[in-house]
Each structure stands twice: as C-alpha cells, then as structure tokens.
Amino acid sequence: MSMLHHLKCGPQTVVRGCLTPHARPVLCIPSGDRVSVDTVNAAGLPEHETEQWLRSQGIESEGAVLELLAILRAHEPGPGPHVLTGPVAVEGAMPGDVLSVEVLSVTPRPPFFGLNFSRPGAGSLPQLLNAPWRKLMAIDAARLSAFFKPGLELALAPFMGIMGVAPREAVSSTAPGLFGGNLDLRDLRPGARLYLPVQVPGALFYTGDGHGLQGHGEVNLTALECSMNCELRFVLHKGRTLAGPLAETVDDYLVLGLDADLERAMTQAVARSVALLQWVLGGPAAEAYALCSLVADYQVTQFVNGVKGVHARISKSRLPSPGRRRQWYWGLPPMAI
User: Fold this and answer.
1) What is the secondary structure of 189-258 as a DSSP string?
2) Quick one: which H or E segment has residue 127?
3) Of 23, 57, 80, 126, most Cβ neighbours within 10 A?
4) Cα angle, residue 327 at apex, residues 325 and 328 outer, rounded to 5°
5) How many whole angstroms separate alpha carbon 175 and alpha carbon 263?
6) Secondary structure (3-state) at 13
C-alpha cells in the first residue's frame, strides 16, 4: 500500500529561485507514494521589505508567513523569484522514464490571503504601468473565495504554478521547459495528472508558486499568489520517454508547447497534438492533423514567463470510447509526443 508523507516548508526543505539537479533530496519515496507538501509564496518584494510590507497590510508573522521570512533570511536570492519545496527523489527514476504527478488536493494555508502584483516593464503590457502595483486580497477559506474589492468576490480554483523535475543543469525558476517547472497551467487542479520526462537520476521533483486563481495567459505578470498545501501522488513509468510535459484531466488531454516565441509554441503544441492523436487513435498523420482542427482548442497558457506556453485541450468525450483508444503512456514510442 502507498504511504502518505508530509513535507514541511522551511529553510532546510526548499530552494530559492531555481530548479537544480545539485540539491540534496529532502525526501526519497517509492513509486506510488503520496506526499503532502507545504509551500510558501513570496510577496514579490526585496527581502528587507517583505516583513515590513506584510505587517503594514495587517498580515502578522505566523504560519506560512513565519516560514517565508525564515527562508528569506536563510537563503540568498536565486535567479528566479520563487521559493520551491523539494527536491523529492523517486526511487528508480532515470532519464528515459516518465514521472506521473497526480494532483489530489490543493489548499490555501494560513494566514489566508493572496496577492497579485505587477510592475513597469513586466507583463504582457510592459508600458502600461508607471509604478509597481500590488493588491492584497483576504481569502475566505471556508467559502474558497477572495475579496478583490467591495462587491467583487472571486471564487478560487487553487493549483500549483510550478511543478517540475530537475533539469540537467540548474535553471531559473521563471521559465518552464522540458522538465516542466513554471507552467502556470490552471487545469492542474485536483484530479489532473502531469507527466514529466525524467532528466536526472531520482527525478528530483520541486513544487511551489501556489495560485488561488488565474486566467489562461496570466497577463499582468502574476496570478493570485498564495501559500498552499498540495497532496500529490507520484507514479514512475519506466521507458516512456516524452518530448516535453503533457497533462490530462478526467475530461481532457492537455498538450503543451513551450517556446520564447508564441508562434513556435503554438506550432509545437499542434505537432505534439498530432503525435498524441495518431498514437491514441491509430491511423495516418493527416487524420490526426484534421482532428486537431476539428476537436482541439488551443489556448495561451501563460504569456509572461519568458518562455511562453500554448496548450491544446482535446476533449476525451469527442474521441472514441476508452475501450477503443490507447492510453498514450502504454508502449509510447520514444520522443513521439
């Protein structure tokens, strides 16, 4: 039977601003186990200003905020802005395997607040703002909602913005890649599975950048940034190499394209969709290509992380019944998708 592990968040269990193959695992688990992971989300401020600003907003140093401040004091800033919990090593994981990460739950942690911020020179309209902008929102944990302003209450849909395995070389936490990372794919909610090609022995999984709410695109730079607890199940698929991250929910396949150029990200998402449909359904590439036009919806995942994301949403209800199609990860040809 699988075990449930609890990975707390603190100076000894996080990295700051990067995904790296050089960090010592803080937890090692067998395939099939579940991990309850505590995460913190930074306030987008320099270290010396964070505590003062939070207190000015009526947020005291308790719970996740206390952990965040201890981490900021203990760790030098990294190349990216995120605090990531991990890495978690999975026994037997090697390059050439695929790690499945099933999202079981994502829950805001106290004190209950979220933050959205932007600044000049950032986001999809870098010339719009003349000064930094921040909006702190109280969260009602029971109702799972955030208060944007009087009369405007927003229903939450929590997910983890960053879920990734270690790349072969250390990279900033800002841009996503073959390893996953800062995908900001809002569909990675409870019930979803993310499939990541293992890059280094042990896989070395990281997560953080919790989002209480986000639209596709994340256009002003951030979502509703929140400290979260997430429960994840890890399953290793041996010899199932992928060309990049792939996800699925109960209802949809989600095929990602990632590139600094949005047009190339779109082209990649289409090419991978063709490969997926050709494998799942059989038949020639021309048929799969046609289905990409007929049943796939292409959406901008995020526009603000340097490497942009496009994902195809392919509804399983528009494909043959499960008994008449292959699961993509069973016997997958190397690098096909």
Assistant:
1) STT-EEEEE--STT--EEEEEEES---TB-TTS---B--EEEEEEEEEETT---SS-EEE-SSEEEEEEE
2) none
3) 80
4) 115
5) 17
6) coil
**Nearest C-alpha neighbor of 30 from the set 75, 92, 78:** 92
Tell me the CA end-to-end span of the chain in Å, nearest whole number.
Answer: 31
Q: How far is CA 221 from CA 117, 174, 272, 285, in A?
A: 7, 11, 27, 37
Run means of pLDDT, 10 residues per run, the chain, 337 residues: 94 98 98 98 76 83 91 94 98 96 97 95 97 94 97 98 98 98 98 97 98 98 97 94 93 97 98 92 93 97 98 93 67 57
CA distance 92 to 176: 25
CB-CB contact of 206 with 104 (8 Å): no
The upper half-sphere exposure of residue 301, i.e. CA atoms within 13 Å in the direction of its Cβ, equals 35
Pairing label, strands 83-90, 205-211: antiparallel
199 and 241 Cβ atoms separated by less than 8 Å: no
Q: What angle do CA 228, 229, 230 make, to 5 degrees?
A: 115
Nearest to 119 by CA among 109, 128, 108, 111: 128
In terms of Cα–Cα distance, which of 79, 6, 87, 82 is closest to 40? 82
Rounded to whole angstroms, how far apart are CA atoms 14 and 73? 13
